[in-house]
Design brief:
mainly alpha; 434 Repressor (Amino-terminal Domain); globular
Length: 68
């Protein structure tokens, strides 16, 4: 299940995983888990990623559809 669009938005903005590594001071494996949807960053980190990429935070997520 894909939850976030971090990898896609990084590409759209011409950024790389290493930019997030430098922004947060985390290791490569952590960012790799985020962009591959193996682990999700906390809400504050999502906010900071959106701010850094200059996008609405909602752009970092796949839209949900609730089937009845």
């Amino acid at each position: 299940m894909k939850i976030n669009r971090i990898a896609e938005v990084l590409i759209e903005k011409g950024k790389k995983n290493s930019d997030l590594i430098n922004l947060f001071g985390v290791n490569e494996a952590t960012v790799s888990r985020w962009v591959n949807n193996k682990q999700q960053p906390d809400v504050l980190k999502f906010y900071k990623i959106a701010e850094y990429l200059n996008v609405d935070i909602r752009d970092l997520f796949y839209p949900t559809t609730w089937e009845k």
